[in-house]
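Final report, Chapter 2: Outcomes

The project's central promise was a pipeline that accepts a single protein chain and returns its three-dimensional structure in a standardized token representation, suitable for archiving and comparison. That pipeline is now operational. To close this chapter, we reproduce one record exactly as it appears in the project archive, with the input sequence first and the structure output second.
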Amino acid sequence: MTDLEIIRLYLEKQDSTYFSILYTKYYGRVYAKCIAILKYSDAAQDAVQDIFTKIFLNLSGFNEKSQFSTWIYSITYNYCIDIIRKDKKSLLFSEDIDKAGTVLEEVEDVFLMEMKLDRLKCLLDKVPVGDKAILLMKYQDDMSIKEIGDVITKSESAIKMQLKRAKQKIKDMYDELYSDDV
């Protein structure tokens, strides 16, 4: 059964078995996103429970304008960012929107793809959480610019600029940390 069929059956019959199917299918993905953004297992675990509660309570509001997985990712991303905002632990993005006119050299995707995994993980942990989230959405989750924009509720051009800046930040840190490696 598709996600949409499961949702319709759940809404029609109010049988929790159908919601359990969705929970089982998406639990791992939601937890992985929470741990990637929040960095702590306890916080991620709490977030997952709250996120699935939100999904449960708002399932009838799923309007099918996007894929169900994108809708869940949007709820997950926004919930985790709200937690970080409340904690005021870090800035979300590396650059202010006012600096959008700044011209940056384009960092090719191949640079990120060929980087050693342990180095990439280290660098991703050093960039602001918003940059990390966008990079993960693009390269780990293979989301389109439009899908990322839908999740974050920003224009495609804003997402492109944030991706460009995040990649540049990773490249600059890489060059600084690993310049001795040839």
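Archive annotation: Confidence is low (pLDDT under 50) at residues 89-103.
This record, like all others produced under the grant, will remain available to the consortium after the project formally closes.
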